[in-house]
Amino acid sequence: MVLGVAGGIAAYKAAELLRRFTESGHDVTVVPTASALEFVGAPTWAALSGKEIATGVFENITEVPHVRIGQQADLVVVAPATANTLARAAHGLADDLLSNVLLTARCPVVFAPAMHTEMWEHPATQANVATLRERGNIVIEPAEGRLTGKDTGKGRLPEPAEIFELSRAVLVHGGRTDLVGRHVVVSAGGTREYLDPVRYLGNRSSGLQGYAIARAAAARGAEVTLVAANVTLPDPAGLKVVRVGTTAELRDAVVSAAAGADAVVMAAAPADFRPTGVSEAKIKKAADGSAPTIELMQNPDILAEISHHRTKPGQIVVGFAAETGDETGSVLDLAAAKLKRKGCDLLVVNDVSGGAVFGSEVNKAVILGADGGHVDVQEGAKSALAEVIWDQIVLRMDEQPTN
């Protein structure tokens, strides 16, 4: 792996990213620009990577580093990627070691931009980003927040932990960019329906699977909107995150984001019911020990709504079913009926008997297709299931007739 570091104030954060790469077993060659070394010196990179740092095309010339480093890489990550670095990469300049590496690399390349908002929004930068993406590179959307000095806005380097996770996803699927130019919507987490200012009806969904699905889509080049219901996880790198609480809020956010989306994956667990009224004061215990009666009403069926009222021709809709099976049928029997009733294209079925899946780092599932497809996904990391889901979505996108 190659970690390119450009000359921005966020260069210090690349040290944490490097640590994450090396501690997970990757062999990392750090290629800092001359400007980057003004922020973080070569001894730091050498100590963390365990390798001497090459900074120029004429160092160790017998090994031809400006060619060899890029040729041997399985992944190149540039973090931070300044406006200058993006411009040089887009125009194929080769005036330092990092730009030479980018020209010789035939592996996936991930750019994590960091710059002031005005620089990111400038038409020249946006044109360069578009060019790089058209060539199959992954350019992460910068985060919003505190910049250099007192400035705030879009242009902040995403957190190193999230750049690491996205980079790992790129390695998992071999750098496929089959979602470039696609806008996808993913929901995650579990909704809450309040009884009073303190209590609510909810469920055990952690949002881990939805976040893995969103992260995998971004790693394959998609523009991703993540609608997160009561999730405490950090925002994945390069995504637009919309936070919601109740099922009604989830419905409004998903319907709005789904307008014009190429795919919608409803991985969130919305509450099926909500109280008919919410007490303005905390509900007190009765002196006689009796329990209050709570009247419930049914929540809107978001999956059925977006499946039956699609806003874009060819839009793919994916639902999730957490089933336990009962006297009326097995898990797959109930899921097959749900797939037909909801009208979605794919249904990811989890057997949650005994509380399985919720909050776990692993998952196993059966993916049912409205076209009769049936894919068994053995137990593994939730990120692995996410890749299979996108494989199935892309397959159906590719089958759509072109105009």
Question: How would you characterize the overall build of this protein?
Answer:
- The chain is of the alpha/beta class.
- The chain has helices at 14-23, 36-39, 42-49, 65-72, 83-90, 97-104, 117-121, 123-134, 160-172, 208-219, 247-258, 302-308, 331-342, 382-399; strands at 2-5, 29-32, 76-81, 109-113, 138-139, 143-146, 152-156, 183-189, 193-194, 200-201, 223-229, 240-244, 263-266, 273-275, 296-298, 316-323, 346-351, 362-369, 374-381.
- The chain has an 8-stranded mixed beta sheet with strand order 12-11-8-13-16-17-18-19, sandwiched between helices. It has a 5-stranded parallel beta sheet with strand order 2-1-3-4-5, sandwiched between helices. Strands 6-7 form a two-stranded antiparallel sheet.
- The protein is built from 14 helices and 19 strands.
- The chain is elongated, with a radius of gyration of 24 Å.
- The mean pLDDT is 91.
- β9 (193-194) and β10 (200-201) form a beta hairpin.
- It folds into 2 domains: 2-172, Flavin prenyltransferase-like (Rossmann fold, 3-Layer(aba) Sandwich), CATH 3.40.50; 183-399, 3-Layer(aba) Sandwich (Rossmann fold), CATH 3.40.50.10300.
